[in-house]
Automatic annotation (TrEMBL):
Organism of origin: Pyrenophora teres f. teres (strain 0-1)
Annotated protein name in UniProt: HTH CENPB-type domain-containing protein
Keywords: DNA-binding
Keyword DNA-binding annotated: yes
InterPro entries per UniProt: CenT-Element_Derived, DDE_SF_endonuclease_dom, HTH_CenpB_DNA-bd_dom
PROSITE patterns: HTH_CENPB
Keyword Electron transport among UniProt keywords: no
Record-level Gene Ontology MF annotations: DNA binding
Cellular component per GO, a single term: nucleus
Domain HTH CENPB-type: 1-64
Pfam families according to UniProt: DDE_1
């Protein structure tokens, strides 16, 4: 057994806690959690089948589909409805904008993720991009665990001064980049 009994129980508790909050963990995230615990002790990572085997041997855990397929989402994936986008001229790269708006109505500057390996300032006209915007890149233009952590730092930087009291409430949508161990 690679993981200690206490480490396995910690993983179970974490999975159940996230699930109770409405954020069920996926198998790759469970593997990442186990691997990070092992890395802290300079041990080799678990194998690719470990998460399924772990869930099977833990009676308090089970795998299931957690929600039914939403009708509105199905409409957005209807090929007939999205054909117009494919007929548009020009580049069709994916761009993600991570935004955060407070209950009082103020927003932190955008965190924009483009498809690519490196961010080039030549992508913009000189001084056309506000200095407080953050630009990130990923292979497909989507957020990653690393970019999710950078966004959290961006959030902290822009909300710390506005905080009244010791705590801030951040409500997340459950994307896997918000459930990483580092986040």
């Amino acid at each position: 057994m690679k993981l200690l009994v206490t480490e396995e129980q910690t993983i179970v508790d974490y999975i159940l806690d996230l699930d109770a909050r409405g954020f069920p963990m996926h198998l790759p995230a469970i593997k990442d959690l186990a691997d990070s615990l092992l890395a802290a002790r300079h041990r080799d990572p678990v194998g690719p089948n470990w998460p399924r085997a772990f869930i099977r041997r833990r009676p308090e855990l089970k795998m299931k589909f957690n929600r039914k397929y939403d009708y509105r989402r199905a409409l957005c994936e209807d090929p007939e409805l999205v054909q117009g986008w494919f007929r548009l001229q020009g580049n069709k790269e994916w761009v993600t904008s991570v935004v955060c708006v407070s209950a009082a109505g103020w927003a932190i500057p955008p965190f924009v993720i483009f498809q690519g390996k490196h961010h080039l300032s030549a992508w913009y006209k000189e001084d056309s991009l506000p200095r407080d915007w953050v630009i990130g890149v990923s292979e497909n233009g989507w957020t990653t665990n690393e970019l999710g952590l950078k966004w959290l730092e961006h959030f902290n930087r822009h909300t710390k001064e506005r905080t009244i009291g010791a705590h801030r409430l951040l409500i997340l949508d459950g994307h896997k980049s918000h459930n990483s161990v580092e986040f």
